[in-house]
Design a protein that fits this description.
The protein is of the alpha/beta class. Helices cover 27% and strands 31% of the residues. The protein has seven helices and twelve strands. The N and C termini lie close together (5 Å). The structure holds glutamine (GLN). Glutamine binds next to α4.
């Protein structure tokens, strides 16, 4: 049994919970989902998920409640995080926007709403490192990763922009993997991420 924390300010909390559960099932791991709205919850979580929504609102809550430093400690301990869309913006080193106080848990800089300025939302089959078949990626007012640090790996690109990136135990996507029944991204982030210490962090159930 593992405990998965989903930051629940806004965004597709139940869809992400379903994705994590399905990914766990395929490894015979049962998952308890906990919603994160205040401090004190993250330290008990084995894995964390930062969903999409509005990055300004999410970062404000994390800062106000003191959840931000708990997430940073989680990453320092080598435990996995999946951050999607606005979650990617919040996780980044810099979002070039004063209204977003980023966590700096993945070494990228992002441009908020960069795809959105051209086209609001779209779906694309993406080739992602670590997955055998293309992933049906849904982009909604998605950010663009415009600079990637030395230790960060680009897992997928769309239109030449990085749209899935990994820095140690943190994986972030510009798209919304929870909007399809395909849970391979949740699997990649939490159960198949060799850079994370989930196996050491959890005991068999
Ligand atoms: N554009 C939003 C932001 O800047 C993110 C959109 C999303 O999460 N779908 O926070």
């Amino acid at each position: 049994m593992i405990q998965a924390g989903v930051v629940a300010v806004q965004g597709d909390v139940s869809e992400h919970a379903a994705g994590i559960r399905r990914a766990g099932e395929s490894h015979n791991v049962s998952v308890e989902i906990v919603e994160i709205r205040q401090s004190g919850v993250v330290p008990d979580c084995d894995v964390l998920l930062l969903p999409g929504g509005e990055s300004t609102a999410i970062s404000r809550l994390l800062d106000r409640e003191g959840i931000d430093t708990e997430i940073q400690s989680h990453v320092e301990a080598g435990k996995p995080v999946l951050a999607t869309c606005a979650g990617l913006i919040v996780a980044a080193r810099d979002a070039k926007d004063d209204r977003v106080d980023t966590l700096d848990i993945i070494d990228v800089t992002v441009d908020r709403n960069a795809f959105g300025r051209q086209i609001d939302s779209f779906e694309a089959p993406l080739n992602i490192e670590g997955l055998d078949e293309p992933f049906p990626a849904v982009f909604i007012r998605a950010p663009v990763v415009d600079a990637v640090g030395e230790d960060t790996t680009v897992l997928a690109r769309w239109d030449n922009h990085p749209v899935a990136v990994q820095d140690g135990s943190v994986i972030a996507t510009a798209f919304h993997p929870e909007l399809t029944p395909d849970s391979r991204i949740h699997d990649l982030a939490f159960f198949a991420n060799k850079n994370s210490k989930i196996n050491q962090a959890t005991s068999p159930d």
